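Hey, quick one: can you model this chain's 3D structure?
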Amino acid sequence: MQAKYKKLSNYELVGKLIEEPKLKIFISDWSYLLKKYKNKKTKHNRIMRIKERLDLGRFATFIPNKKEPVYNWFYYKEGFSRHLALLLIDEFALEKNNILLDPFCGVGTTLLACKERGINSIGFDVHPVAVFVSLVKIRDYDIEKLKAQAKALLKTKFYRQDVPKDHILRRAFKRETLEDVILFRNRIMEIEDTVIRDFFLLALMNVSIKCSYIYKDGAVLKFIKNKHIPPLRDMLRRQIYRMIRDIQNFPFQPCSTHVDFGDARKLKLENECVDGVITSPPYLNKIEYTKIYEIEQRLFLDFLESRPGIRSYIGLDIERVRSDFSPVCKILEDENFSGLPEEAKPYFLDMYYAISEMYRVCRSGAKLGIVVGNGCFPSGVVESDIFLSKIAEHIGFEVKEIVVLNKRWCTRDRTKKIGITRESLLLWEKP
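Sure thing. Here's the predicted structure for all 431 residues.
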């Protein structure tokens, strides 16, 4: 096989073979591939219409949001960018009376983009930090009330605070910084207006991490003791007034926006009530991303109740899972499903239920844009974009296209390259 075809997956090779039959001379096992992967009605070729748009790859990350007012109030590395959300809203030709759903809303990028376009939106998530940040971002505020409360809050005089006997918190902060954090947190929690209170609590949450020894390395919290720690009070003052300016300048359009705790596998919505979906579910991997927001949750949001999430996302012990995988097994075929890593099976079962719920709540003609990442395991790459699209078609969606946004090496033992994973945008439509 020519070198340029070696990087293609089996499904991509089938697409190439159908489009360019002459390639058979370069692919020695072409007959086996066509027999195994091509649907008898050539339906599979339509489902697996894969194209690359690596020029959009950066927009599948949260990095561009770091420079976007309001979007950057909380850095959430698992999210995608404002640019991608707006691109899809415009591509779907959504109108102001339409309703857009994000069942894995994270910190509200899709919802905030909808407010820029005046599109009604609904978002759900299971993580307390994500729901809290989303709520603060999408609310409407009285600027004068914020300014008056900021002036009063920043006049708070320092006095010694009892520091929690929490090993992680003590490692994360200098004692005087932690005392300042606790002082302002307690003062903020005395504010009766919950909208105003949550606004200042998010500002404090943001600067507290910047004034800590914490370094978030992937899904791991690390502590850098030689890090320069700026004065928290000065950082808080700048953060509060920057957030107030952001609200004054942000192009909010009149619309309805709703955020709540919610399990994507059992949405609290009526049948056929939304006109589109833009979302990014947890990626298939063995990394527990929720742990990197443990400090924020324990220090600021201990008053919120934790909610159960998608199993593979929250790291539930696989040995305790005794589920009936037959719905997914039939769709992905016994051979494909049995060959999956054990950690992947609950993920696809959960996503089967989540996709079924999306189908239930979508109106006919609804368009969906879903950003997903393939799984990287010691045994090899699991093509989540392909498998999820097969599940979606089985449920009833039309799979229009798989747009590859990023490609990354999958490695074993951090050094041995065993395949290429894709980060893809799945474009589906309900007939």
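One thing worth noting: The chain has three domains: 3-36, 49-127+257-287+308-431, 141-251.
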